[in-house]
Write a structure and sequence with these properties.
Chain A: Keywords: Membrane, Transmembrane, Transmembrane helix. The structure holds two protein chains of two kinds. Chain A has helices at about 5-40, 45-70, 75-95, 105-120, 125-145, 150-230, 235-255, 265-275, 295-310, and strands at about 280-285, 315-325, 325-335, 350-355, 360-370. By secondary structure, chain A is α+β, with helices and mostly antiparallel strands. Chain A has a five-stranded mixed β-sheet, with helices on one face. In chain A, helix 2 (about 45-70) runs parallel beside helix 4. The longest helix of chain A is centred in the middle third of the chain and has 78 residues, at about 150-230. In chain B, strand 4 (about 65) and strand 5 form a beta hairpin. Chain B has helices spanning about 20-30, 45-50, 75-80, 95-100, 115-125, 135-145, 155-165, 170-175, 180-195, 200-215, 220-235; strands spanning about 10-15, 35-45, 60-65, 65, 70, 85-90, 105-110. By secondary structure, chain B is of the alpha/beta class. In chain B, the strands form two sheets. Chain B has a five-stranded parallel β-sheet with strand order 2-1-3-6-7, with helices on both faces. A two-stranded antiparallel sheet of chain B has the order 4-5. Chain B has a single domain (about 10-235), classed as Rossmann fold (3-Layer(aba) Sandwich). Classes of the chains: A alpha+beta, B alpha/beta. Chains A and B meet through strand 1, strand 2 and strand 3 of A and helix 6 of B.
């Protein structure tokens, strides 16, 4: 996942957590506090109701801070959840028996919000929150029973408030987590798009490389294929020479990308081998070790010598002299002539093609000098 | 080609274990118009050849590989005994060529070298003259380019390079715009520069003496050449 994707997810997640903590704070200040203070006179033990409010607020601060700062409560979650249930029971105990599940008994409907932020970061939040809400229902029913208020009116009120509160609390929690999930989907989606884009670029590159290779192969053999298509006689020595030249070029294209320890020598040897098979006597002499050279330099170095070798009538002397700062490839052969080379060029490579021995031989030399 | 008259043929002892190669050398020597070389002994070990007829041969032609054994370690003792050793081998990489020269051999002939070069080399060595067959020229250029203190001048290098590439001395002269004698001088002087083996050998001394006589180098040059070459030797 990239840094920006991480930040997208973090922003979504932090927004949902802030919303959850705000709901709890607003509810505790706006509803619970008003309920406690407004019915202060009607409590059997007002101090117990006040203590419950403060305890609720304390747990809220601990859980809220932990949630916003992404600090895990770890093993502390369950003890805090139990204390929260105790808050619910404390408020009930503070009320007169007739006031259980009435306005003064704010605890049983509110503790669900606190549980929501307690369990929020846990992967098992749904199961944990459901368990808590169920436990709160049991605690409240026990309170009603102990107050002797299991009458139809109280029970129906209890059911309506419970269902409403549970729906709101579980719904808010589910909504917040849905936001997180949506963020993850968005990130996955953008990853998929980026992957597809990368694959497309790679395919374009492969295609371009293929076209370039095709162009190279075409340039290598098109002239001779055209000659043959136009009805040239394959027995004609000139046509056979053109074919040999095309074959040598193809050989070079294949050999230059082989994974050989010394690619320059490998390419020259491969071409010399092909020329020898045609019955040309090739004397291949090397001196020194070839330094690592980029492909375009190797190409520019061997192109003219290979053309010369390919056009040899009966013999070719191929030499390679290499030092760390200079590589010189030369061919002395009885080839008739060499068409002006307009092929590979590379910086620091100079090629000479000259008649030798009174025009009976051709001397070709390519020289790379270290920049 | 040679300034002194040819009063007698150079006597040659051949140490070679392959009969067909020995026959080839015999036919090359026989085909030389001047009959400048005479093979007096041949055999498949150094001891058998030098223990018999070859005891006083002017030149020993030594195959670098005899029955699969490298004969390089035998070279220093032969050179110390005052013998002129010409090594020839199918292994013509520059490392092998330079190792052979450092061991004290007069020169190195690749088996790919042609007839004229082979006979010319033996004749030159028999008269203590420097002779550089083309393959050795390539090795000298490559070896010189690898050292931090090259001994060859740019012109010497160019002459050796064209010689290695297969041109005759006339062509090299034409291309470099100098006389054929100067080409010869450049190539031979390069050999003299790499003559030192780091030990005093009679053949080396005579080679240098000849080089001074022929005007290839002056007496003052010798100290410099020796120190450079000795330095080159210890670096390896």
């Amino acid at each position: 996942m990239s840094a920006s994707e991480t930040s997208v997810r973090r922003n979504y997640s932090l927004g949902a957590r802030r919303a959850a903590v705000s709901i709890v704070a607003a509810w505790h200040l706006g509803f619970d506090l008003v309920g406690t203070v407004g019915t202060w006179e009607s409590y059997r033990f007002p101090w117990l109701a006040g203590l419950a409010w403060v305890l609720y607020a304390a747990i809220g601060v601990v859980a809220g801070v932990a949630l916003l700062r992404e600090r895990p409560l770890g093993a502390g979650v369950w003890p805090l959840a139990v204390v929260t249930l105790v808050v619910s029971a404390m408020v009930m105990a503070a009320c007169e028996p007739g006031d259980v599940v009435n306005a003064a008994d704010w605890g049983w409907g509110s503790v669900g919000w606190l549980a929501m932020i307690l369990f929020w970061p846990r992967p098992t939040w749904l199961r944990d929150l459901s368990g808590f809400l169920l436990a709160n229902v049991v605690v409240t029913l026990a309170g009603l029973a102990s107050a002797g208020a299991l009458d139809a009116r109280s029970l129906s009120k209890f059911l309506v408030v419970s269902v409403g509160a549970i729906l709101l609390q579980a719904g808010a929690s589910a909504g917040g987590h849905a936001l997180d999930l949506a963020a993850r989907w968005a990130v996955e989606n953008s990853n998929r798009t980026a992957g597809a884009e990368a694959a497309r670029k790679a395919a374009d590159q492969v295609h371009a490389d293929r076209l370039a290779r095709y162009a190279e192969v075409r340039a290598a053999v098109a002239p001779v294929l055209t000659l043959l298509a136009e009805g040239a006689d394959p027995a004609d020595p000139d046509v056979r020479h053109e074919s040999a030249v095309g074959a040598a070029r193809l050989r070079r294209l294949i050999a230059e990308t082989d994974d050989a320890p010394d690619p320059l020598l490998h390419t020259l040897r491969a071409c010399a081998f092909d020329v020898e098979r045609r019955g040309v006597v090739v004397l291949f002499l090397t001196a020194g070790t070839v330094p690592p050279l980029p492909l375009e330099v190797r190409r520019a170095l061997v192109e003219a010598p290979i053309e010369g070798m390919a056009r040899a009538r009966s013999q070719a002397r191929v030499t390679l002299v290499a030092t760390p700062r200079e590589v010189i490839v030369s061919v002395l052969t009885d080839a008739p002539s060499l068409p002006s080379a307009d092929g590979s060029r590379a910086a620091n490579v100079a090629t000479r093609v000259e008649a030798e021995n009174g025009g009976t031989q051709l001397w070709i030399e390519s020289r790379w000098t270290a920049p | 080609m040679d300034r002194e008259p040819l009063d007698r043929p150079v006597t040659l002892a051949v140490v070679e274990d392959t009969p067909v190669v020995l026959e080839g050398i015999r036919s090359w020597v026989a085909a030389d118009p001047g009959r400048r070389v005479e093979i007096v002994a041949s055999g498949n070990t150094v001891d058998s050849v030098l223990g018999g007829e070859g005891a006083h041969a002017d030149v020993i032609l030594l195959d670098l590989e005899l029955d699969g054994v490298n004969s390089l370690p035998r070279i220093p003792e032969l050179v110390a005994a005052g013998r002129r050793v010409v090594v020839y081998s199918v292994h013509e990489d520059d490392a092998t060529v330079m190792a052979v020269l450092r061991a004290g051999a007069a020169t190195f002939i690749a088996k790919t070298e042609t007839r004229e070069h082979c006979v010319d080399t033996i004749v030159a060595v028999g008269r203590d003259r420097p002779y550089v067959p083309p393959v050795m020229a390539g090795a000298l250029v490559a070896a010189d380019g690898q050292t931090s203190r090259p001994m060859l001048s740019a012109r010497e290098r160019e002459a050796l390079l064209l010689w290695f590439q297969g041109m005759n001395k006339q062509s090299v002269a034409l291309r470099m715009g100098i006389s054929e004698a100067t080409v010869k001088q450049y190539i031979e002087r390069a050999r003299v520069k790499y003559a030192s083996t780091g030990r005093a050998a009679p053949t080396k001394t005579t080679l240098l003496a000849r080089a001074i006589q022929d005007g290839l180098i002056t007496a003052d040059d010798i100290i410099e050449y020796q120190s450079l070459a000795a330095d080159h030797h210890t670096r390896d």
